[in-house]
Predict the 3D structure of the following.
Amino acid sequence: MNQLIPDDIIEATGMSEDELKTEIAVHLFKLEKITLEQASRLAGMPRLQFQHLLASRRISLHYDLGDFENDLETLKRLEQ
């Protein structure tokens, strides 16, 4: 389900739609409501770029068992 942010809300923030999506992604990630992958996708940037953004704001990564398992799966795919 895709949601649109009304133009008047975007205008009220003084940000572009992309900037607003990035801020929402950062905030939701910081609150641990979405994963790093989800946040980077919402922000419309590669995961590494989003990680750099978080680091520039001194927001630490939440690395849990699910993240570890995802990384293991990625490594297995890369070995093939």
